[in-house]
Amino acid sequence: MINQYKFEDEPELRDLFITVDDPESHITAIETFITYRVVTKTSRGEFDSSEYEVRRRYQDFLWLKSRLEEAHPTLIIPPLPEKFIMKGMVERFSDEFIETRRKALHKFLNRIAEHPTLTFNEDFKIFLTAQTWELSSHKKQGPGLFSRMGQTVRAVASSVRGGGVKNRPDMFTDINDYMETFNQKINLLDKISQRIYKEERGYYCEMKEYGPIHTLWCASEEDLVDSLKGVASCIDKCCKATENRMAGLSENLLPVLHEYVLYSEILTGVLKRRDQIQAELDSKVDALSNKKAEKDLLTEEIGNLEDKVECANNALKADWDRWKQNMQHDMKTAFLNVAENNIHYYEQCDVCGSGKRRF
């Protein structure tokens, strides 16, 4: 199983390396926010230098994601962490929250860097290289392609609602069905895994208080000193094993599951945008057959929309195959890591149990 999935489309040599690190807190009269250092090293000719270092805040990452969606409406843009990650599990601006977000932002940029199309996006290059004032100036520029398409797409969307697209290719119907099932399963896994983590953390906190009680008890029970110390030692080892298992869940499983919860929402949006382009084409074809407008004008519009649909289909098909391979790889790796962590946990606890039986 470990070598089941092979990524033949991945480049052999990488030419863009990005690191997100060194979070800094900024407090102003208006707001408190965190910035992260983004270090880029590259050998690409379109970059003026081989290394860049800039600082970016969460809003800048949101801007980049928005611009990528505008420029590539039928590509699968990697997800960003939400404003509050794992709400209820960590406090905003705590070290745990900041580190969790830093890892997610690091993954976001590297997902883009590894994408065969997104990696060459001009806004992505500007994000990596521009100084803060330059980026602020660039962000004030007008809306991109997706915003200009918005009015047409929204006008057609009303005709799409309440019914399926007439001429949707079977492949995209299959993808849509797959994503409906995937969305249900991944959301359920995400909720259960977070609940398990919370319960595990509660158990860990109880264990930390439980062990020392036996050590203190030794002072008043001379005949039970060895037994009580043995139990205290066993509980301490189990506590450490539980802590390691919690770390494995929070590092290897929870972020992966939640990332693909966000991915499922993104893919649903991408499929809808593809359908909206298809619906616009269908409406023009119907208008032509009903002779509701001038044929020459409609024929030209239909030709342009056919090209648009073909481009959207090809882009989404290639991205879907790539995304599915990555998803299978990420899930397999996450579940294998959890299985290994559980094996180590039970081995440690079994040693403790064997020790207890000697008393």
TrEMBL record:
One GO cellular component, as annotated: phagophore assembly site
CDD domains: PX_SNX7 (cd07284)
Keyword Transit peptide in annotation: no
Family according to the record: Belongs to the sorting nexin family.
The entry's keywords: Coiled coil, Protein transport, Transport
One Gene Ontology molecular-function label: phosphatidylinositol binding
Superkingdom of origin organism: Eukaryota
Keyword Coiled coil attached: yes
Residues covered by the PX domain: 14-135
Positions of transmembrane segments: none
PROSITE patterns registered for this protein in UniProt: PX
Position of the signal peptide: none
Name of the protein in its database record: Sorting nexin 7
InterPro entries assigned: AH/BAR_dom_sf (IPR027267), PX_dom (IPR001683), PX_dom_sf (IPR036871), PX_SNX7 (IPR042130)
Gene Ontology biological-process entries: autophagy of mitochondrion; endocytic recycling; piecemeal microautophagy of the nucleus; protein transport; reticulophagy
Coiled coil regions, renumbered to chain: 288-315
